[in-house]
Design brief:
- The structure is a single chain.
- This protein is an alpha+beta fold.
- Helices cover 51% and strands 9% of the residues.
- It contains 22 helices and six strands.
- A six-stranded antiparallel beta sheet has the order 1-6-2-3-4-5, sandwiched between helices.
- The protein is globular.
């Protein structure tokens, strides 16, 4: 339906014409009396030269003035104060939408920490060359690929997609802007031998037997996961997201008419750039491409050798299909080295404890006990305890070396010094890796600090003092 604004002419109601009366001449002997105001209503006045209307008598201007006077002014102050106010965690948790998430490893690392999946580490991949992929922390549980999405024109491989097997966890994307978390969940839920935390483990157990669309719906309805996804959003970001969705809905309703006008005018329609996340995972010897927009997962084939080679070939092929678009990003979801470093440190400390027990009574033994170098407080920072160190099984290589006939106090001192050097190196690596995690979490916390209310109050104070008006006048004068 064309609105008045679109047609340019306001709708006019047709004038009803009464045809019931007979317009023929009355046959009467009496003379017909002229009605009152006959000269005004029935006689066409003589032509007069039109006089120019004054500016005050223009009907359109009068209508505009009347419309302006009829509008009740609404105070936008309270609404503005509400938008620029600080948002509480409960309000963010109750927000039902999803904000756009940028491809930043720190954000994904902080999300995994907040989700309770502390055994994962997200690392950016700058090249698909085998030498570069070899340096990723092992094992690599999956890849998250970000690319510019072409919408309905996006090339796909639907004919090779297949039904989701029981051993593969795959969820469809059922809402907008959730593709980053959907891709992340499609990797994390398929990882083996890792801790997911209480909430994610409960979510995986409850969705294990469901089809992909139902998994995606429950993911969208999960307040815990959605609130962490939106943890860096401010209130004004949520308002902007709602406005964007409203504009997209309005744009979709006008899509048909816009296409017609673009064809008639010959002008190219404005195409919005959209980005989309998909996942690549190895499951039971097969490599899968998991796209939340697709109804079914795509099997890329067996993981011959390294599964990263198969996934890398598929990613490069997709990049060639989208050759007109050059913006890409690739993130690797790896095993966090913290657990491995803690285990290696415990094993090394167990060997030092065994040597100290055997040779501490020897007068030539000058090595400090391991629990003096690593007291309980320091062990706790590495997720270790003294009981864990004492109960750790000694490596076979250590038993063979200590059990040799030529192994004496001198050899024990040399081995103890080597173990101390190894322990300091492992501890330094653990501290550095822990600092990386803390940096990611602190970066997200920095984004969560919303300075908008303070800036709003500061600018309002400047406006009340008249400073803003002076600045605007100064800019106008300089211009």
């Amino acid at each position: 339906m064309v609105t008045p604004d679109e047609s340019g002419t306001p709708p006019v109601s047709p004038i009803p014409v009464d045809t019931s009366q007979n317009t023929a001449a009355r046959r009467s002997s009496r003379a017909r009396k002229a009605p009152a105001k006959y000269d005004e209503e029935y006689v066409i006045p003589a032509y007069e030269t039109p006089r120019p209307t004054s500016r005050q008598s223009r009907p359109k201007r009068k209508a505009a003035q009347a419309a302006t006077q009829s509008i009740v002014p609404e105070d936008a102050g309270p609404l503005l104060e509400n938008i620029l106010d600080r948002m509480s965690p409960d309000e963010r948790r109750e927000y039902g939408g999803w904000v756009e998430l940028e491809s930043e490893p720190g954000f994904f690392n902080a999300m995994l920490q907040e989700l309770g999946a502390k055994d994962f580490k997200v690392q950016e991949v700058y090249s698909l060359e085998a030498d570069i992929l070899e340096f990723l922390p092992k094992p690599v549980h999956g890849l998250v690929f970000l690319f510019q999405y072409e919408g309905d024109d996006e090339p796909g491989d639907e004919e090779n997609c297949q039904d989701c097997p029981p051993d593969l966890w795959f969820a469809n994307q059922t809402t907008t802007n959730a593709c980053a978390t959907v891709a992340l969940m499609n990797i994390v839920m398929n990882a083996q031998g890792v801790g997911l935390g209480t909430q994610l483990q409960k979510f995986r157990n409850s969705t294990a037997a469901l089809p992909p669309p139902h998994r995606g719906h429950l993911l969208d309805a999960n307040d815990f996961i959605r609130s962490i996804h939106n943890s860096v959003a401010r209130r004004i970001d949520l308002v902007a997201e709602d406005l964007s969705l409203d504009n997209k809905l309005e744009e979709s309703l006008k899509k048909k008419s816009r296409k017609k006008s673009s064809r008639s005018s010959g002008k190219k329609a404005n195409v919005e750039t959209n980005y989309h996340y998909i996942a690549y995972v190895p499951v039971n010897g097969q490599v899968w491409e998991l796209d939340g927009f697709q109804c079914k997962p795509l099997c890329l084939g067996p993981a011959a050798g390294s599964w990263l080679d198969t996934a890398s070939a598929a990613i490069q092929e997709r990049m060639l299909r989208n050759s007109d678009f050059s913006s890409y990003s690739l993130l690797a979801i790896c095993q966090s080295p913290l657990k491995a470093l803690s285990s290696d440190l415990a094993r090394s400390l167990t060997c030092s404890h065994a040597l100290d027990t055997l040779f501490s009574g020897n007068p030539t033994w000058t090595v400090s006990p391991p629990f003096k170098t690593f007291p309980d407080a320091r062990l706790a920072q590495r997720n270790l305890t003294r009981e864990m160190i004492v109960g750790f099984e000694l490596p076979i290589s250590f038993k063979d070396r200590v059990g040799a006939t030529d192994f004496g106090p001198e050899q024990a001192l040399a081995l103890a010094r080597d173990l101390n050097t190894e322990q300091e190196s492992l501890d330094a690596q653990y501290v550095a890796e822990l600092a990386t995690v803390d940096e990611a979490v602190e970066m997200v916390r920095g984004r969560q600090r919303d300075y908008t209310p303070a800036i709003h109050q500061w600018v309002r104070a400047l406006a009340e003092k008249g400073v803003l008006r002076e600045l605007i006048q100064e800019i106008d004068r300089d211009a």
